[in-house]
Design a protein that fits this description.
single chain; 2 strands; 5 helices; mainly alpha
Amino acid sequence: MLRIAGVILSDDEKIGFGLTKIYGIGWSRSNKILNDFKIKPNKKIKDLTKEEIQGIIKYITENYKIEGELREEVVSNIRRLKDISSYRGIR
């Protein structure tokens, strides 16, 4: 079991798919991360080395807003649009 930003990824999943379960990481970001570390997207999570796992976790936390931080930013953007009574905020 791999835990990244509070999300638990199963050992039997492919790493390319597993990373997409993290809020803020889609297919293109997942592939970019794996290409930077030269990891094949079809590799299972249980087959990753500790260095690869630590590198991925460090890279994600340093370079991307994910999970709680991203959700908070989205909510604050919506609240700001409502406060200024913009058309998008009212909708």
